[in-house]
TrEMBL record:
It comes from Paramecium sonneborni. InterPro entries: PCMT. This is L-isoaspartyl protein carboxyl methyltransferase. Keywords: Cytoplasm, Methyltransferase, S-adenosyl-L-methionine, Transferase. It catalyses: [protein]-L-isoaspartate + S-adenosyl-L-methionine = [protein]-L-isoaspartate alpha-methyl ester + S-adenosyl-L-homocysteine. It holds the Pfam family PCMT.
């Protein structure tokens, strides 16, 4: 039993951020402490982002929960999901558990090589088997290009703010699929993009947010 994690989940539930049983269970199953830096372990269950180096952060628990709730109906058995700017690897684990099946697959794409290594190390603690089976995979690359090889994806989470929605990500979104993405410079808006059976897109603005930019590696490191 992890009291601090339970308390966090209770609070997110009270605040209405966690609304479903499945997100609640997944939140209790993925231990955030495995995804934060050594020096921040004592803050693992606080509801704010934490630095993970290279001008990146592990997002705040309420944003992880919010994203999982929005993607919930698309993280079904046997589907493929994409996590752009996978950073700590937390959401790759959480998205995988949402889908809980042997046929499911989560691909994380991250451009900082050291963060790719760090996330693999984090995931290796409890998700070693899924890494071996390639049910969870972290790809080093430019997330704006997505990862065509494994697409199309029923669910795409973008964990960094794009100035405009990358076309490649829209292309790799499956029919009937959903993408959540922070968009904008400075004032960002969290958008939910649904692609219907005919390939038509519907875009909703749901929340004002602050994310690390989805940008060139050089720009991020010089920030
Ligand atoms: N969901 C992650 C968020 C990490 S912060 C977590 O909670 O841990 C955003 C991440 O996006 C950073 O790790 C950053 O390195 C990455 N990123 C920014 N621009 C990128 C790009 N063009 N391609 C791939 N990753 C990118």
């Amino acid at each position: 039993m992890n009291n601090k994690l339970e308390k966090l989940v209770q609070n997110l539930f009270k605040e209405g951020v966690i609304r479903s049983e499945i997100v609640k269970q997944v939140f209790l199953s993925v231990d955030r402490i495995q995804f934060v830096d050594e020096s921040d372990k004592m803050y693992a269950y606080e509801d704010y982002p934490l630095q993970i180096g290279f001008n990146a952060t592990i997002s705040a628990p309420h944003m992880h929960a919010y994203s999982l709730e929005l993607l919930k109906d698309h993280l079904q058995n046997g589907v493929r999901a994409l996590d752009i700017g996978s950073g700590s690897g937390y959401l790759c684990a959480a998205m995988f558990l949402m889908m809980k099946s042997q046929q499911s697959k989560v691909i994380g794409v991250e451009h900082v090589p050291e963060l790719v290594e760090k996330s693999l190390k984090n995931l290796n603690i409890s998700y070693n088997q899924q890494l071996k089976d390639k049910q969870i995979q972290i790809i080093k690359g430019d997330g704006r290009l997505g990862y065509e090889q494994e697409g199309p994806y029923q669910a795409i989470h973008v964990g960094a703010a794009a100035e405009t929605i990358p076309q490649k990500l829209l292309d790799q979104l499956d029919k009937g699929g959903r993408m959540v993405i922070p968009v904008g410079k400075g004032n960002q808006v969290f958008q939910v993009i649904d692609k219907d059976a005919n390939g038509k897109l519907n875009i909703q603005n749901v929340l004002g947010v602050r994310y690390v930019p989805l940008t060139d590696l050089k720009k991020q490191l010089n920030n």
